[in-house]
Amino acid sequence: MYNNYNPQVSLDRINTQIAELEKMRNQMQQPIQQPTNLTQNFQLAPANRDVIKYASSIDEVQRDMVIGDTPYFSKDMSVVWIKNTKGDIKTYELNEIIPKDEKDLKIEYLQAQIEELKKGMIKNERNTTIDDTITEPVEDEKSTGVSTIPKPKKK
């Protein structure tokens, strides 16, 4: 039984295990390397930036949180509120601009002339009523506090 035993093989195996354990001990004793600091910058951008937001009143606009300048339109598109990140709200009225052709421009020009002529006629009517009251003859009224001297009669 002891004839097949080779002490050199066992010794080699023990030495290999000791070497592996020493290697593990050295690794454990080395200072743990800190991972490099990662700087992660996140830029928050709304996903629905191109979407039109609607509100029925300024109260709804005040309640909503915004990341950047955000426009809110009324349902009938007559008012727009623009809210910034500080919470300040600006209100604007919107009017539709309808392109005009030559005929529309001519009609507007003629209507403006008619209005101007009407104003001139009203002004003339006022001036004539003032002139009429000025040109009316003044009736002879005798003063009650002044004595009159009779004129001598011619003979």
Overview of this structure, please?
It is a single chain. The chain has helices spanning 7-29, 58-63, 102-135; strands spanning 53-54, 70-73, 79-83, 89-93. The protein is rod-shaped and about 195 Å long. The chain has a 4-stranded mixed sheet with strand order 1-2-3-4. The protein starts with 6 loop residues before the first helix and ends in a 20-residue tail after the last helix. The chain has 3 helices and 4 strands, in the order H-E-H-E-E-E-H. The chain is α+β, with helices and mostly antiparallel strands and 155 residues long.
Please provide a brief summary of the model.
This protein is an alpha+beta fold and 155 residues long.
Largest sheet: 4 strands, mixed
The tally of beta strands, per DSSP, is 4
Round the Cα radius of gyration to an integer and report it. Answer: 53 Å
Q: Based on helices, strands and strand pairing, what is the structural class?
A: alpha+beta
- Tell me the fraction of residues in β-strands, as a range: 5-15%
Indicate the low-confidence ranges by residue numbers. Answer: none
General form: rod-shaped
What key attributes describe this structure?
alpha+beta; 3 helices; four-stranded mixed β-sheet; 155 residues
Write the layout of secondary structure elements.
Elements: H1 7-29, E1 53-54, H2 58-63, E2 70-73, E3 79-83, E4 89-93, H3 102-135
Parallel strand pairs: 1-2
Antiparallel strand pairs: 2-3, 3-4
